[in-house]
Amino acid sequence: MLxxxxxxxxxxxxxxxxxxxxxxRAIKEKKIRVSFYDPKxxxxxxxxxxxxxxxxxxxxxxxxxxPGMVLRxxxxxxxxxxxxxxxxSPRAGKAMKIFFSTDGAQFDETMAKKLxxxxxxxxIAGHYEGVDERVSKILRAKKVSMGPYVLTGxxxxxxxxxxxxxxxxxxxxxxxxxxxxxxxxxxxxxxRPEVLVWKGKKHRVPRVLLTGHHAKxxxxxxxxxxx
Length: 227
Fold this sequence. Notes:
- This protein is an alpha/beta fold.
- The chain folds into two domains: 2-176, SPOUT methyltransferase, trefoil knot domain (Alpha/beta knot, 3-Layer(aba) Sandwich), CATH 3.40.1280; 184-226.
- The protein is 30% helix and 19% strand.
- It is built from eight helices and nine strands.
- It has helices spanning 15-18, 21-28, 73-84, 90-94, 109-115, 134-139, 155-166, 214-226, and strands spanning 2-7, 32-37, 59-60, 70-71, 96-106, 120-124, 142-145, 195-198, 201-204.
- The strands form three sheets. A five-stranded parallel β-sheet has the order 2-1-6-5-7.
- Helix 5 (109-115) crosses helix 7.
- The protein is elongated and about 70 Å long.
- The mean pLDDT is 88.
């Protein structure tokens, strides 16, 4: 079973999504598993009586100056060890560690398919001005970018990656044919009624879809995909 481990300060921002619809059903049917690790729960060595205020925070100001706060490495690394074990454990060695970054490899369908064959995937969801760079180096994590834009945190990228990867796990989708790459499909889909009357104007379903001629319908779909 593929197990997604998410290190995030805000698990509540992802949980509702992964617990609903197709992903939620896949979790209930034990096709996949999703676990959360909040770095705030992994600052305990500094929480002894008399500890300085800055030592019980998960973030600190960046060296060299700059706006915002950077997540400290220790809580993130401890959370990662809780998820997949220490660096010397066989499980940690086989796990895929992903560090969301704008300068990472572009996430795509090919990457999603490869990731679906893994047993453990660790996702580091940064926030604020990011995560101390030493985290990705120590974990030997793969830097991944979800697109040519910047988001306020790594929670949305984590949810997106889980959704895209889970689709390739056998049994997650109702039918294997639902995978776009394995069926003849087009970006245009229609259902009843055959003629939609909206504000006095008629909008019809393409006639070829009503013929029942599968060869012609497939040809239309292929043409639609190229447009």
